[in-house]
């Protein structure tokens, strides 16, 4: 049963759809013209930080200041309520990296692609087209939405609105990629910027076609992250898929959990310990979900 929080609606029922006035926009985003003026005049709205990934590496993001982040989160929340295609696994409520991997369970052949510099490659012009053409917002509303959710002509990595906007602004590209995969009898999933294609065989022309569509829309892929496998285990979105149909965590994640557990045990009480403990709990929940998939 779908929870109310995970319930989704057609895009024409989105609260942003055909939002005609700036006044209604400010009300919907729970902000004011005064706050917008303040944000426009602020010398710095973002600061760079490094965010730890599950594999132990870090990614660079631009963290918005608190008041801007709250507005961006509101935009993101409204878009998360919109129905998405079946191939999209994130950003989608109720779906996880485990669900993404499980979708390919039982396949013989896999091909993985990772879009390079995804958010910085997402054009503000495409975002504007989504606000204006897809959602039907007038130019003055589009202008404000762009100011609040883009930076220097692209989507800022670190904004709570960027994951959903990156999909919707490029839905035409993703749909074209889905058509290429479906025509070859392959299964496609998209997890933000991770592309997984599977089937009894993933033809080379399918992979070539997907890369061509990425290039056509201004994106590229990370050659060092490209992976292919036939009749063997492969890691997709942080989950190992085995030929027997089982799923498992990579050894690096088990090692990371062990290290976190040791650090938490040794740390004195305080905010830093609670932060690490929270991270550990999340990883342990992930492990339990994987074990449940195998039991199922």
From TrEMBL:
Start and end residues of each Reverse transcriptase domain: 52-225
Record CDD domains: RT_Bac_retron_II
Taxonomy, superkingdom: Bacteria
GO molecular function: RNA-directed DNA polymerase activity
Keyword set, alphabetical order: Magnesium, Metal-binding, Nucleotidyltransferase, RNA-directed DNA polymerase, Transferase
InterPro entries, sorted: Reverse_transcriptase_msDNA (IPR000123), RT_dom (IPR000477)
Classification via Pfam families: RVT_1
Name the record gives this protein: RNA-directed DNA polymerase
Organism: Rhodovulum sulfidophilum (Rhodobacter sulfidophilus)
């Amino acid at each position: 049963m779908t929870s109310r929080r995970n319930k989704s609606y057609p895009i024409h029922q989105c609260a942003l759809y055909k939002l005609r006035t700036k006044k209604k926009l400010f009300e919907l985003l729970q902000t004011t013209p005064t706050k917008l003026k303040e944000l426009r005049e602020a010398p710095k709205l973002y600061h760079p930080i490094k965010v730890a990934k599950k594999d132990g590496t870090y990614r660079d993001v631009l963290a918005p200041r608190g008041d801007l982040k709250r507005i961006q989160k509101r935009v993101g929340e409204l878009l998360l309520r919109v129905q998405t295609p079946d191939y999209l696994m994130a950003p989608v409520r109720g779906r996880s990296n485990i669900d993404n991997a499980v979708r390919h369970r039982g396949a013989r052949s896999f091909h993985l692609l990772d879009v390079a510099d995804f958010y910085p490659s997402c054009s503000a012009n495409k975002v504007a087209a989504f606000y204006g053409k897809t959602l039907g917002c007038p130019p003055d509303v589009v202008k404000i939405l762009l100011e609040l959710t883009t930076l220097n002509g692209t989507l800022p990595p670190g904004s709570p609105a960027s994951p959903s906007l990156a999909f919707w602004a490029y839905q035409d590209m993703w749909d074209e990629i889905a058509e290429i995969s479906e025509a070859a009898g392959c299964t496609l999933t998209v997890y933000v910027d991770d592309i997984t294609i599977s089937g009894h065989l993933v033809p080379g022309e399918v992979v070539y076609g997907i890369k061509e569509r990425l290039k056509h829309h201004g994106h590229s892929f990370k050659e060092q992250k490209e992976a292919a496998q036939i009749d063997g285990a492969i890691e997709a979105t942080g989950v190992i898929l085995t030929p027997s149909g089982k799923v498992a965590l990579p050894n690096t994640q088990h090692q990371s959990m062990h290290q976190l557990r040791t650090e938490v045990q040794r740390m004195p009480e305080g905010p830093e310990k609670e932060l690490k403990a929270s991270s550990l709990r999340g990883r342990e929940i992930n492990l339990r979900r994987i074990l449940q998939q195998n039991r199922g």
